[in-house]
Amino acid sequence: MRISENHGMTEPLPSDLSAYAGLCELRLVGVDMDGTLLDDQKRFPPKLDELLDELDSRGIVFAPASGRQVWTLLDMFPNRPGMTVIAENGAIVMKDGVEVSSSPLDHETVSRAIDLVRAEVKAGRNAGLLLCGKQFAYIERHDEPFTSQVDPYYHRVLKVSDQHEVVAKMESDAIDDDVIKLAVLDLEEVTPIAEKTLGLFADTHQFAISGLNWADLQLRGVDKGRALRALQEAIGVSPAQTAAFGDFHNDLSMLAQAEWSFAMANAHADVIEAARFVAPSNNEDGVGQVLRTLLNG
User: Fold this and answer.
1) What count of other Cβ atoms lies within 10 Å of the Cβ of residue 294?
2) Beta-strand (E) ranges in the chain?
3) Within the chain, what is the greatest distance between any pair of CA atoms?
């Protein structure tokens, strides 16, 4: 056992999968990105393309699952047109360029959030609001310090002068898009502004502080597990034919939807306890090691 760089905990030994080698009839694999598929330097594991080719040849759907924008996820796999992705922490699922499921927010909540964040920014918070749509993320703040923090996670961004105007155009169908998530980015520390803005909707919506600088708001019940279930239904796959890999709390619902559930060795203790198996760490290509064993022995 060693100390996990991600969570400061001892890592358990990976599960012995020899009894299942070559006997697992997988048809769907849901994989978290940060801390799971990507190593600590945000790099893909070696020979990932070869593994994805093998999964394709066997008719197994590989679905990255992340809080990133759908277009950002697709851009991360440029040689995989039509790839299946679970984006915005489950708020939208796409397969072969077609939407499988999505969970838009009501416009009243979006409009109230715009006003609340504007008031906090006017009062001095170094922050801004993103309207995370299916097609684009819409931002009112256009300066480089802000956009440089947005760009890694949102590859399709529209800089607008008035987010209320965007909402009005969505309502009139002048803009063919829906807001599926609200995100506040504070360049200093997000908790103070989050509690005064998106946090006010926590009783009716799903609110989360998702890092030092980010907070999110979605429909209640939207998560990776719900998205994975929608994907299973769309392609006719059961939990017994599904594997899922994750490392943190926002992966728990996805693991619960798969009989072949794997916590990474570097995962939070709660995830390790919830999962059926433990995979080697994200820095050891744990996802690849497990899938190659299950497929080929």
Assistant:
1) 20
2) 28-32, 61-65, 85-87, 92-95, 98-102, 127-133, 137-139, 157-159, 179-186, 205-209, 214-219, 242-246, 260-264, 277-279
3) 61
Domain boundary among 204, 219, 234: 219
Question: What CATH number corresponds to the domain at position 165?
Answer: 3.30.1240.10
Whether 205 has a pLDDT exceeding 50, the answer reads yes
At 128 the three-state DSSP class reads strand
Tokens representing 126 are 């170094």
State the Cα–Cα distance between residues 197 and 193, nearest whole angstrom: 6
Backbone angles phi, psi at 253, to 5 degrees: -65, -35
Q: What is the dihedral of CA 74, 85, 71, 264, to 10 degrees?
A: -80
155: tokens are 């590859």
DSSP label at 34? B
What is the number of H-type helices and E-type strands within the chain? 10, 14
Beta-strand relationship, 179-186 and 214-219? antiparallel
Give the strand order in the sheet containing 157-159. Answer: 157-159, 137-139, 127-133, 179-186, 214-219, 205-209
- DSSP strand pairing (61-65 vs 28-32): parallel
Q: pLDDT value at position 184?
A: 97
Shared-domain flag, residues 99 and 226: yes
- Contact criterion met (CB below 8 Å) for 6 and 220: no
The predicted model scores a pTM of: 0.87
Give the range of the structural domain holding residue 170, as residue numbers without chain letter. 107-219
CATH number at residue 265: 3.40.50.1000
Mean pLDDT of the region 198-210: 92
